[in-house]
UniProtKB/TrEMBL annotation, chain A:
Belongs to the ABC transporter superfamily. Residues 2-241 form the ABC transporter domain. The keyword Transport applies. GO terms for molecular function: ABC-type transporter activity; ATP binding; ATP hydrolysis activity. GO terms for cellular component: membrane. This is ABC transporter ATP-binding protein. Keywords: ATP-binding, Nucleotide-binding, Transport.
TrEMBL record, chain B:
The chain crosses the membrane at residues 21-46, 58-78, 99-131, 137-163, 170-191, 226-245. This is Transport permease protein. GO terms for biological process: lipopolysaccharide transport; polysaccharide transport. Belongs to the ABC-2 integral membrane protein family. It comes from Thiorhodococcus minor. One of its GO terms (molecular function) is ABC-type transporter activity.
Amino acid sequence: MIRAENICKRFRLYRKPSDRLKEILLRRSYHTLYQALEEVSFQVADGQTFGIIGQNGAGKSTLLKILTGVLLPDSGQIQMSGRVTGLLELGTGFNMEMSGLDNIRANAMLLGMSASQIAARRDLIVDFAELGEFIHEPLKTYSSGMVMRLAFSIAIHADPSCFVVDEALSVGDAYFQQKCMRAIQDFRARGGSILFVSHDMSAIKTLCDQAMLLEDGRIVDIGSPKDVVDHYHAMLLHRSHQGDVPVTINRPVTPSEPEPQASERPASPLAGTGEVELVDLRLADAQGRRIEQITSEAPLTIVAELRARRDLEQPHYGIGIRNRFGHSVFETNTYCMGETPPSVAAGERIRVEWRLAANLIKGDYSISVGVGNRPYGTGSFDEILFFSHDLAMLTVEMDPDAIRYDGYFNMHPKVSVIHEEAMA
Amino acid sequence: MNLLLLLDFTRQDFVDRYSGSVLGVLWALIHPLVMIFIFTVIFTNIMGARLPGVAGDYGYAVYLVSGLLPWMAFANTVTRGSTVFLDRRNIIGKIPIALAYLPVYIVISEAVTFLISMTIFAVFLIAVGALPGKAIVMLPFIFVLQQIFAFGLGLIFGVLNVFLRDIRELVGVMLTFWFWLTPIVWVPSVAPPLVQQLQETLNPAYLFVNAYHGIFVHGQMPDFGALSRLVLIAHAALLLGWLLLKWLERDVRDFL
């Protein structure tokens, strides 16, 4: 278990380290303050995975360093039931001149393991790392992936109560990453806590029980991974505006679990300038009837009614469908489809009709809507005027006439089985 | 931070120092051997230097070596202590480690080197028949005090060196001055009386160097007044170093 309460960390930035001594001697200030963390509190229960997301410089690494005890916080308290290990920028204090085996011993000792524990774990660590004869060679001959294997193997076998998974894991090849994920899941099943720091948002949504979004050292959002990731995406959209238009970001409305009035929920955009308003969003079947549920394979129409409060010279409209994990199943926009919708005048009302085939697997889905102006690149916009997730819910029922399948959607396979005699 | 880890650091220290060399740890024996040999040959046999008031051919060589070996342990401990946090920043930045205990491995490592040198010196003393008397029992006690003092100084300079890299060079210069201002190569009686008196009051190194000289050259028990002063000074240095580290630990970690 980890409990962090009101962690604050300020870095005093000096032009050179000796200014710190000058400050003490002359009793004058020679630094500029940098607030790396402010009032950060959270709790991770045993057997839980806690995701930490945020842009570069948001304070993620500082927080990890404080949790591992490498940096000391200015104020705040940390309670932890045991030690924290992890990859932490690869190779926690490896000696590149020493062999893999010697590094295992030295590193395990540094992590605070006793001699008998090390003796008991050594073979496990060696087996897990799968380095073969390289285990007897000095670390300087290793590739970065091999160093990562060794670091991970030691860290997971050091009996931590909390394990930190960060981007360093991605140094490993696909096979070893899978092996690591299995080991991490075993560790979690045994009651260990996991801190998961990643820029891979779908991994955060899939693996975490809770997530926290940091921005400039403050907790912007904490809660269910899906909501927090949505919030983060909205924040990134905001960034892409480069500050030329004031944008409001609203926290996503929480319970995204079955909610009958989902389609009537007030449309408060995740991000947007407020200059485009979603008047109505409805889902309809082939007969144009309003629906909340549809049979797989049937035609689906999504109608978004929008009102613009100002002129839009190059407007584009986007649609997205996400499954209950918040993973995007399908999303596109008029720009990506090669369309050029006509410009819009202030006060005008626009109706955007999407006609799609709902060949999705049975399950609950949510609809996202976006409006952008002046596209560039492969699908970015100068302005995001409206963007919001979970505006309407759609339940897809299985089509009894279609094939049975698993995955995301029906790719309508055709299959032939040819016997060898017939091939000649 | 446990003893096991410190001993491993010490072991690793020796491995690192001699790694890749054919003779390995044998070099730890060769250095003192060469030193004793040179001092004996040059000062005793070539220059014919005699220690005033001490009979025997090897008096001056014994005087030199018995002061020099502890001084080297002392000076090396201080020098390496002053850079320990920077040298070990890769570990400090990754693993929660108690900073105050980190320099202990240097103290142990230098003590081992000292022990090896002393063994060789003992062989030499037996060979020339200049065995010290029972005052030798005081040797470990003085050495421990000396190393506590060195540890304290190392901590102080180590902390300061994180902020001001010049400290490391300053320590080198200071130790050179200190070495020549302390009667290790020269005999106090050749100095003016004022300098002799200043030694007593101002130079903590004189307190232990003089004690070694007493034991090895004159077979005397150390002066307990001087020793109790050394006890005070050594622990004051240790306390100061520890307080300085506690006060600046957050900054030390931030800067590394």
